[in-house]
């Protein structure tokens, strides 16, 4: 919420005096006005009167909270007083509950915040005057202003209290056709969403949506309330669905997401529709229903291309690739993933690049094409280095290492399996320097063939041609080369 | 013969009148330890409080009997203190009751007794004396002696200022009386200030919805009513009525519930009880009757609120065992409800009337 400008408040006498004592305000009132009991004060006496009036004494002696309360009561605003008193008592009980759990309770009590108390006085008294005269809208406005004032996360309970009051008040306002009611439903939904009670939040948001259907209301920032309702409802449905997916309650999740996509269609906002289909697709994926997932994700990608939204297009392709991977159509998956990488690169979305490259590498890894896998992993690793994201770097490092290890696996197997000294030498040198192991270029090309036991002899025959390999070693370490050269 | 001669009294001993501290000429023949200066004062004191505490004063005003051992002496001293404390409370309650019933003249001797005993027990400048001062102030106000009331109140205020540990309840009472003083002096600003303080302190002490806080609201409402700010006064009266209604209703419902359960072996029934002492009872009745009168004489009648007050009064009288009055109020409420076709209220009131009739028909235990 925006910060509040200082209130041009008509402060009562006691509070002015008390604030002087607090030295946080300016403005005095002439002493002659304070010293009511003395009649016939003339100019001389006024200037030279020594002493304190009763109110000055009271201002000095009493706490600011007491001054405010007394001012409220004096003018007859007993309901404001009851509310303020109730809030302070609630603070006390919260503090007690917190003290039981932990020693530190850093929040300042309401009593010690003079500005807060001033705001309370101002708004609560105005709300009460309005209530007395029957202007419920004014009451609502004042309570709402007070709720906005408490935007500090530590003061959440105060804000929630006022949101609830606004809600109760709004139920009674019928004059404006329910607009205030709709707004207050939105606030209550937000309240519950923050607390994590998604069901209740969903109910309130549904009511909000229902009330704003077909109406052309806008809120203060000019956004259409209907749109806002759809957005919020979608959000809450998605959260609910997420929770259900965690609990593996797929059917419910899918039901809710279908509702969400209907809502999105109503909202006439293509992006929202697209998002709804995206989430539906993801839910179907978790449920194992690949074809429906594909259908939904295709809709999403169509909508994104319509909207020229590259980012969402990238997301769509990525999701499609995942589905295809689960289905087993890896070549298709690879195609999509490459598209994703390209899009991501164009839009400088490094994280997406990382993710996509990792996925690509993974696919190739499974297929057995280790060198391609390690190439993509290297790509991912380089991008994370640019990003300087330590956890991602570590992760990609691991993947890269695994791919490299797989690459080396064949050569390692050969060296171990071979029964000549050269293999042993290779192994030893590798152990010492941990650099790239020699590989036969011919062997690298077709690892699948090598794993075939029939081809085992061909492998043995090919190992007897090590000389060519020395020239083709890629790696930096010259030691094994030298050794080989010296041997041969 | 209950006349005594001041000159016949032993040298140095001065016998003073209970009420006015003038040299005493008469003695009460029932207890022989209480002295008065004239028949007028004796009669006044007897009517007010002496009838009730006559015999209780004897052990306090005579010398202690001879005890054989230290233990017995301690016990005797302890007994004496207990008696004094009991008397303090008793006199205080009696005086308060008189005040709420409007009998200010009668309240004065009782209040004086309370003050004297407190002085004896606690000392001259203790906070405990403050309630007694306040009572005397209120009585003086009721009798129209404003200067005297101011005197007592200043004494009370000074004592409060000097003491370090004054409870919120005492502050509340002090401010309430100060408020009443300023109402009598027609200084509405000050009165409002003091009553606001009163409400604040009693909320701190008892909570905002307590019956003791309702007195403060009531007086504030009176001020606004006097200032012709009728809507403001109205909201405050509503609040007072609500507080009392909730309180009385709770008691009534618990009573009904307990009655509905099986009676215990002896078949004894739970006695009606308001949970308040006599003074608070009287206060409640006074407040509610005033609210009722104001509501009934209001320009725009709101039957719902009147019905509420009538119901509260009926239930209160019933709980205080004044069934006839309870019936009267209930019947008034019923007629009003019928006039306004308020079916729900009619049912409730009818049930209540049935309970009262059942109570009357049953022979008293």
Characterise the protein shown here.
The complex is a heterodimer of chains A (488) and B (365). Chain A is mainly α and 488 residues long. Helix content of chain A is 75%, strand content 0%. Chain A has a domain at 411-487. Chain A has 26 helices and no strands. Chain A is elongated. Residues 1-6, 23-28 and 439-488 of chain A have low confidence and may be disordered. Chain B folds into three domains: 1-64, no CATH class; 77-207, Serine Threonine Protein Phosphatase 5, Tetratricopeptide repeat, CATH 1.25.40; 254-364, Serine Threonine Protein Phosphatase 5, Tetratricopeptide repeat. In chain B, 72% of the residues lie in helices and 1% in strands. Chain B has 13 helices and two strands; from the N terminus they run E-E-H-H-H-H-H-H-H-H-H-H-H-H-H. Chain B has a two-stranded antiparallel ribbon with strand order 1-2. In chain B, strand 1 and strand 2 form a beta hairpin. The mean pLDDT of chain B is 83. Chains A and B meet through helix 5 and helix 6 of A and helix 7, helix 8 and helix 9 of B.
Radius of gyration of chain A equals 37 Å
Q: Distance N terminus to C terminus of chain A?
A: 79 Å
The number of strands of chain A is 0
The H/E string of chain B reads EEHHHHHHHHHHHHH
Approximately how much beta-strand content do the residues of chain A carry?
under 5%
Biggest interface, chains and residues, is: A-B, 17 and 20 residues
Can you identify the CATH class of the largest domain in chain B? Mainly Alpha
Strand content of chain B: under 5%
Q: Using only CA atoms, what is the Rg of chain B? A: 24 Å
Structural class of chain B: mainly alpha
InterPro entries (chain B): TPR-like_helical_dom_sf, TPR_rpt, Zinc_finger_MYND_domain, Znf_MYND
Protein name (chain B): Zinc finger MYND domain-containing protein 12 isoform X1
Organism (chain B): Dipodomys ordii (Ord's kangaroo rat)
GO molecular function, one term (chain B): zinc ion binding
């Amino acid at each position: 919420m925006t910060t509040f400008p200082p209130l041009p408040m008509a402060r009562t006498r006691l509070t002015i005096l008390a604030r002087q004592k607090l030295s946080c305000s300016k403005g005095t009132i002439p002493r002659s006005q304070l010293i009511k009991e003395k009649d016939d004060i003339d100019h001389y006496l006024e200037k030279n009167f020594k002493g304190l009036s009763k109110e000055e004494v009271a201002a000095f002696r009493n706490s600011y909270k007491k001054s405010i309360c007394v001012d409220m009561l004096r003018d007859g605003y007993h309901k404001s007083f009851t509310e303020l008193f109730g809030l302070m008592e609630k603070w006390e009980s919260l503090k007690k509950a917190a003290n039981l759990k932990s020693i530190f309770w850093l929040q300042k009590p309401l009593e010690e915040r003079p500005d807060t108390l001033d705001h309370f006085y101002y708004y609560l008294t105005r709300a009460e005057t309005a209530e007395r005269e029957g202007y419920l809208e004014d009451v609502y406005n004042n309570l709402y202003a007070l709720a906005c004032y408490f935007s500090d996360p530590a003061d959440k309970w105060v804000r929630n209290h006022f949101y609830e009051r606004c809600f109760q008040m709004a139920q009674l306002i019928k004059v404006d056709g329910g607009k205030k009611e709709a707004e207050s439903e939105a606030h209550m939904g937000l309240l519950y969403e923050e607390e994590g009670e998604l069901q209740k939040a969903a109910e309130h948001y549904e009511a909000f949506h229902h009330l704003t259907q077909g109406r052309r209301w806008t809120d203060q920032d000019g956004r259409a309330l209907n749109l806002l309702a759809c957005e919020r409802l979608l959000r809450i449905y998605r959260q609910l669905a997420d929770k259900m997916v965690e609990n593996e309650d797929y059917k419910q999740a899918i039901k809710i997401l279908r509702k969400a996509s209907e809502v999105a269609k109503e909202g006439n906002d293509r992006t929202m529709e697209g998002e709804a289909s995206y989430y539906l697709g993801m839910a179907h994926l978790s449920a194992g229903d690949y074809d429906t997932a594909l259908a939904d994700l295709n809709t999403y990608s169509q909508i994104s291309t319509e909207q020229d939204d590259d980012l969402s297009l990238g997301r769509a392709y990525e999701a499609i690739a995942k589905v295809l991977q689960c289905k087993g159509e890896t070549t298709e998956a690879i195609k999509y993933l490459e598209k994703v990488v390209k899009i991501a690169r164009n839009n400088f979305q490094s994280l997406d690049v990382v993710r996509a490259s990792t996925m690509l590498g993974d696919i190739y890894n499974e297929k057995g094409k280790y060198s391609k896998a390690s190439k993509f992993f290297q790509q991912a690793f380089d991008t994370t280095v640019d990003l300087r994201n330590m956890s991602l770097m570590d992760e990609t490092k691991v993947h890269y290492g695994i791919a490299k290890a797989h690459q080396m696996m064949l050569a390692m197997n050969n060296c171990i399996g071979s029964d000549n000294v050269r293999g042993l030498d290779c192994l030893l040198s590798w152990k010492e320097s941990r650099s790239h192991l020699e590989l036969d270029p011919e062997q690298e090309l077709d690892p699948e063939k090598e794993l075939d036991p029939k081809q085992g002899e061909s492998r043995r025959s090919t190992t007897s041609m090590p000389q060519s390999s020395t020239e083709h070693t890629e790696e930096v370490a010259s030691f094994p080369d030298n050794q080989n050269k010296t041997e041969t | 013969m209950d006349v005594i001669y001041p000159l016949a009294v032993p040298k140095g001993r001065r016998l003073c009148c209970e009420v006015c501290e003038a040299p005493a000429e008469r003695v009460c023949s029932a207890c022989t330890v209480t002295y008065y200066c004239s028949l007028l004062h004796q009669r006044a004191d007897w009517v007010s409080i002496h009838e009730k505490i006559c015999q209780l004063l004897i052990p306090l005003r005579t010398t202690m009997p001879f005890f054989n051992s230290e233990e017995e002496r301690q016990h005797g001293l302890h007994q004496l203190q207990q008696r004094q404390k009991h008397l303090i409370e008793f006199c205080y309650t009696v005086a308060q009751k008189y005040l709420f019933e409007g009998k200010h003249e009668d309240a004065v001797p009782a209040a004086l007794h309370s003050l004297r005993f407190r002085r004896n027990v606690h000392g001259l400048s203790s906070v405990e004396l403050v309630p007694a001062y306040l009572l005397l102030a209120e009585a003086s106000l009721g009798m129209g002696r404003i200067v005297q009331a101011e005197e007592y109140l200043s004494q009370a205020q000074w004592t409060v200022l000097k003491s370090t540990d004054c409870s919120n309840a005492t502050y509340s009472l002090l401010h309430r009386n100060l408020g009443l003083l300023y109402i009598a002096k027609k200084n509405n600003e000050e009165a409002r200030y003091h009553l606001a303080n009163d409400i604040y302190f009693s909320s701190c002490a008892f909570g905002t919805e307590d019956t003791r806080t309702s007195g403060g609201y009531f007086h504030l409402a009176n001020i606004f009513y006097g200032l012709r700010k009728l809507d403001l006064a109205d909201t405050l009266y509503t609040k007072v009525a609500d507080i009392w209604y909730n309180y009385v209703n709770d008691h009534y419902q618990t009573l009904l519930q307990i009655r509905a359960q099986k009676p215990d072996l002896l078949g004894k029934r739970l006695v009606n009880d308001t949970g308040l002492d006599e003074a608070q009872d009287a206060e409640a009745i006074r407040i509610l009757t005033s609210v009722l009168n104001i509501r009934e004489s209001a320009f725009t009648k709101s039957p719902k609120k009147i019905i509420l007050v009538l119901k509260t009064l009926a239930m209160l009288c019933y709980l205080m065992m004044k069934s006839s009055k309870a019936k009267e109020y209930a019947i008034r409420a019923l007629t009003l409800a019928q006039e306004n076709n308020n079916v729900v209220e009619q049912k409730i009131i009818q049930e209540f009337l049935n309970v009262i009739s059942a109570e009357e028909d049953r022979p008293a235990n």
